[in-house]
Specification:
By secondary structure, the protein is of the alpha/beta class. The protein has a five-stranded parallel sheet, sandwiched between helices. The longest helix is centred in the first third of the chain and has 13 residues.
Amino acid sequence: RAAAMFLDRLIQASEPASLGVGWGATLRETVHHMVPANAPDIKVRSMMGGLTRGSEINTFEIVRRFAKVMNAECHYLAAPIYADSPDSRDAILAQPFFDSLLAEATAVDMSILSVGDVSPESLQVRYGLPTGTDVSELIAAGAVGDLLGRYLNHAGHEVDHPLNRQVISPSISQYQKIPTRIIASGGDHKKEILKSCLIARLAT
């Protein structure tokens, strides 16, 4: 509810031409509390690949809901959150279509994302990690959670793990070029990843 009120006010005050969104339970609930608006000129863009099961992790469902409540244009990033391997990811992103989609995902005026942690409560840990990926390996590499599917350490830097080379989402440096970056998450289990995002100034 708080995230929705904040976003409503920000959109009304700044009139962005485009909004980038992620996925997760927080964003799914945020959109339920937003005030319906009529902003047909705003483009709502999905910023990361997703999964096809569960409304919290279905990037298509969440970006559609944001666009619907704002009566805005909806733009999907039709890709999985992780490719099968780094080589597969490189092959996908070598296609001009996907490369341009990722560029458009960060060519937005404003973004709202949630973060994931590395506890059993994490949706991504439960449903989103590729087969054969053990969360304990991510923790051993220093990961405290993820932003845009990219696993970060306490300082907000990407850890050295193959998963970060399989993810289909903008790079952290591309993401940081977005003028207004909102991160909305809650829960005691999210403290460490939220702290790392603050340290690295990943939210404005």
